[in-house]
Amino acid sequence: MQPGFFNHLLLICQFEIKRGFATRKGLLSLITFAVIWYFILLYPLRFAAGLVVQGNSLHQHFSFFDFIGFGSIQHWPISEFDVFWHLALMLFPILSITLAADQTCSDRERGTLRFIVMRSSRDRVFFGRFTGVMIIQTLLIGAAAFSTLALVLNRDTSLFSSALPDLFALIVNLVLIVLPFTAMMAALSAQVKSARQATLWAILIWTFMAGMINGLSYYVPGLDFLKLLIPGYQLSDLAQLSGWQTLQLAYVPLLQSLILLAFGRWIMARQAL
Question: In total, how many domains does the chain have?
Fold first, then answer.
């Protein structure tokens, strides 16, 4: 490994974080996320959690999660975390595709990536941008989780000590969940010319790959292991778990991330700047 690799990687990571929080585009994204999450927290999350607290059946009052295959939202001890978990399993992968789309593609299109690589290396830029985007998403996940904790404490402050372990389990799992999606966007960003193209290709490739692999595994059950290649394929199984039990499937996003990052690094090493 080249001397100063991690120092350069850290500088590029810091630049990505600054771009995410201190630029007009980054601030607009953060404000949009904050407003959307505020209304999610205030209405669907609080409403659905209230139904659980009252002892009502969500199969009768809130069947959306059953419709999409996530099942009943009655697994976590604290109802707000239960609803947050199911909502987050849908929202944060989508958010990750959006936030992580522009890791290197816009710099390549403007010609600034060549200038950056002259003073660093392709590996440092690739992994530095990826790490920076992951830190931004971790902060957003933490903010959403702690705001949900505030909602729990607003209902019952005595739940604080029992809520903390589940809170950190939520954060760790959601960070793991967005890892392969961010790695997929890093690979696509190294190939295409704009964030919009990266987002469109991610949706198309993910949809096509999921459909093709599911079809093959249906007719040839021996190919069922190929589902490991689909980012997020384990989400419906995760929805049936709670607490630290959710880490039973942690190997899936970790394996997917390693494969996608290796593929993205290969693209970055060969792509014209």
Answer: 1
